[in-house]
Amino acid sequence: MEISPSILSADFGNLLSDIRKVEKEKPEYLHIDIMDGHFVPNITIGPLVLNALKDKTGIPLDVHLMIEEPDKYIKEFVDAGAKNITVHQEACVHLDRTLQLIKSMGVNASVALNPATSLDTLRYVLSSVDMVLIMTVNPGFGGQVFIDGMYEKIRELASIRNEKGLNFKIEVDGGINIDNIKDVVLAGADVIVAGSFIFANGDPGENLKKLREAALK
Ligand code: DX5
Ligand code: ZN
């Protein structure tokens, strides 16, 4: 299991200091939520902020684009240090083209599904993705409650991967805490995104450690 702390719930006035606190616990990725106020009803940050962070942290940047027309911005995010780029199936008219575009820039290409979107929509692209992100809340905000119906979706995706002999990772994002992380991992998740559990209260490094421990219990 790998963990990708989401800075959405970090203190943006002291972002680097919050990142230093999780660095001590060596997270595998740092999850960056990009929102445009169109695809989702919230606005966050753009490539400018990633550019400012990229030489200051060694944690690979896992960029989750919750934006319309992502093709227009992919190069900017790659130049700003993204190691993985996730686009939403719902935001891509030509999903295969978008995934090929990401891969042509030498970074990992991933696709996200909103809770209501079927796994069937990915059937013909599964062999060309590095990761599938299952949203376990409706995207747009941190601190929401995990949607229990998503366990079944994670299990189904893990079983499709197995049947087809593919090796993309399964990332899960939204509402993860110490009470549900173990079940999410047992369902088949490889990469766990956690925002408010890590950054909203207490020490982010300690919270990350607690999550890892809870997954192993
Ligand atoms: C929500 C974002 C998530 C968010 C998760 O749209 O994609 O990455 O930061 O936050 P928590 O862990 O608080 O649900
Ligand atoms: Zn996210």
UniProtKB/TrEMBL annotation:
Enzyme type, top EC level: isomerase
CDD domains: RPE (cd00429)
Active site: D33 (proton acceptor), D173 (proton donor)
TM region(s), chain numbering: none
Cofactor note: Binds 1 divalent metal cation per subunit.
GO cellular component, one term: cytoplasm
Domain of life (superkingdom): Bacteria
MF (Gene Ontology): D-ribulose-phosphate 3-epimerase activity; metal ion binding
Swiss-Prot/TrEMBL catalytic activity: D-ribulose 5-phosphate = D-xylulose 5-phosphate
Pathway membership: Carbohydrate degradation
Family: Belongs to the ribulose-phosphate 3-epimerase family.
Name of this protein: Ribulose-phosphate 3-epimerase
Native source organism of the sequence: Thermoanaerobacterium aotearoense SCUT27
Lineage: Bacteria, Bacillati, Bacillota, Clostridia, Thermoanaerobacterales
